Amino acid sequence: MALLITEPTLSGIHDLERVLGVCHHFGIPALVCINKYDLNEDNTRQIENYCLKLGVEVAAKIPFDNIVTEAMVKGLSVVEYSDGRVAQEIKSLWHKVTEVLA
Prior knowledge:
This protein is α/β, with parallel strands linked by helices. Helices cover 59% and strands 17% of the residues. The relative contact order is 0.16.
């Protein structure tokens, strides 16, 4: 399985389309996570619609949050540093990945 992390930018969308094409070519199932989804919700909807059309699950949408930078400065992962919304989304994504792989 491939876990593809994208951002709602034009280059992110283009790269996601290419990598999903490679996954499809080699028969590799994929999950998608949209990082900083709330920075451009129109592009996020475009990603979601594209994934829906291909039958690829968007497993998580992680919002932008400065807590990520704070955690990096402290040398910690986000889930070690915080129990906020971003940490909860990351944990939920992890559970989804382990569920798919089981």
